[in-house]
Design brief:
The protein is of the alpha+beta class. It has seven helices and ten strands. The chain has a six-stranded antiparallel beta sheet. Helix 1 crosses helix 3 and helix 2 crosses helix 3. The protein binds 2-acetamido-2-deoxy-6-O-phosphono-alpha-D-glucopyranose (16G). The site of 2-acetamido-2-deoxy-6-O-phosphono-alpha-D-glucopyranose (16G) has 13 residues, from helix 4, strand 6, helix 6, strand 8 and strand 9.
Length: about 240
């Protein structure tokens, strides 16, 4: 069942060759949650040291292609959602993939903008701002926590609307706020125990921290601070030549 063999004379490091073999196995032969051979078996099968086998497996674990269960072994991870960096809503993104989007309401309230929040939304400190916190799900599985901040004067009564079944961007459009420009900052982060609990992750798991600013024309409409599961998402940007 070995797909290829390790070429000892190749300039490609052996662990990398094994990684390729394993990737081929993951993509073409094994299903999600299927066990992969142990490091000992891999080492024996491909004539490698345990160290080399471990290096290849560890690489794939850290990339999120495999996961380990203490005392049980190493298994094939679910492929991540490949999310293009575009100005789309969660609802649109999930539907485009044939997944059912969902939301759990974690809180909706009106606050007074701090100086910092005012700066993000181009409103004066003290201005009323709506905060909408949601747990976003795909086919019922928690994917992300989103905290959207929207200047209250732009969308009066927004908080009376349920956003459990409804897309926030659709709702904003009904106020005439059609988002046409966005900016996003992406950082690596670690889930704290609260966020980990909501996302169904072990505390200390890696997450993607996203901050998004959106505008409708020259009006700043949304400042969103989101936590996405790093084990479920990879982000894709298309790159233009810098002019
Ligand atoms: C996206 C945005 C979020 C926005 C939401 C609206 C990121 C990472 N995500 O998930 O800011 O609030 O879409 O989704 O910026 P909805 O229209 O489905 O409610």
């Amino acid at each position: 069942q070995a797909l290829t063999t390790i070429d000892a004379r190749s300039p490609v490091p052996k662990y990398f060759q094994l990684r390729e073999i394993l990737l081929d196995l993951i993509e073409n032969e094994l299903t999600v949650d299927a066990p992969v051979p142990s490091e000992r078996e891999l080492a024996a099968r491909y004539g490698l040291s345990r160290m080399t086998a471990r290096q290849a497996v560890e690489h794939l674990v850290s990339e999120g292609r495999l996961y380990r269960v203490q005392g049980k072994g190493t298994f094939v991870a679910r492929p991540k959602i490949d999310m293009p960096l575009r100005l789309t809503s969660f609802t649109e993104d999930m539907r485009a993939r044939g997944l059912t989007p969902g939301s759990r309401d974690l809180g909706r309230h009106e606050i007074e903008a701090t100086v910092a929040l005012g700066r993000e939304l181009s409103v004066e400190a003290g201005s009323p701002v709506y905060v909408i916190e949601r747990l976003r799900t795909a086919d019922g599985v928690p994917m992300a926590l989103e905290r959207s901040h929207i200047p209250a004067h732009l969308a009066p009564d927004l908080l009376t609307e349920s956003l459990v079944e409804r897309s926030l961007y659709d709702l904003l459009a009904s106020y005439g706020l059609v988002l046409d420009r966005g900016e996003q900052v992406i950082e690596a982060g670690i889930a704290d125990s609260n966020d980990a609990g909501l996302l169904g992750l072990a505390p200390g798991s890696a997450v993607l921290l996203l901050q998004r600013h959106c505008w409708a024309g020259s009006v700043a409409v949304e400042y969103a601070v989101s936590t996405y599961r790093a084990d479920r998402y990879q982000l894709r940007a298309s790159l233009d030549i810098a002019s």
